[in-house]
Amino acid sequence: MRYEKLLLRKRAVIPYAGGAVGNAIARLFARHGAQIALGLSDIKAGEELLDEVRAFSPMSFAFSCDLRCEDSTWAFCSEVIKRWSTADVLVNYLCVDDMPDLPDSDDSADDLLFQVYQRTLVLTARTFWPGMLSTGSGAVVNISCSENNILSAAGSGTVGGFTRIMAVEGGPRGVRANEIIISRRNGADVENTDAACVAGTALFLASGMGEYTSGATIRVGGLRGVSAV
Predict the structure, then answer these.
(1) Residue 152 is part of which domain span?
(2) Is there a contact between 168 and 131 (Cβ–Cβ < 8 Å)?
(3) Are 25 and 53 in contact (CB under 8 A)?
């Protein structure tokens, strides 16, 4: 195993590559030889990230993707399939920082919850899971945030259950699925998380180093400037 190029010639899909965590995963995967399809809610703002990724992986590309919009997510998935036909690695980063408390929520909060946590999982799995099963290889890494309120708990619970069933179904056919939960304390913003820790864990699960790991849930902390409760 080449530890300096753990994802050499692998095609990795990151539907949400924005923010500190998404950026860190994209950069690390590129340095390890992956071709990357970056989903960016703001293409112009993401040009610097794409340039950094292409310095290591010239065939990588970016396409507009807003996980809060089903049509946008589906358009991104369709574009990736058109270019690649399949993928080797799928990383879903599913966190909503502004989810209201249950007493203050309304139908719009429910719609946001279902779209980001549930519809994104279904759309990306429907697009890339069959190809992984047919080739007998692949890795899915689903990332959510620790539960700060009831609605967030409903979302992250969906991610965990979905991931475990993927692991059960994919295991006999050589496809792995694992979950990372970003631990937050005292309501800390996910952008204050040590993104490098999350990215390193995702690399382990997506690469050959984690080939015997499937169905696992790994909690990653490393918050900066936040006191433990």
Answers:
(1) 11-220
(2) no
(3) no
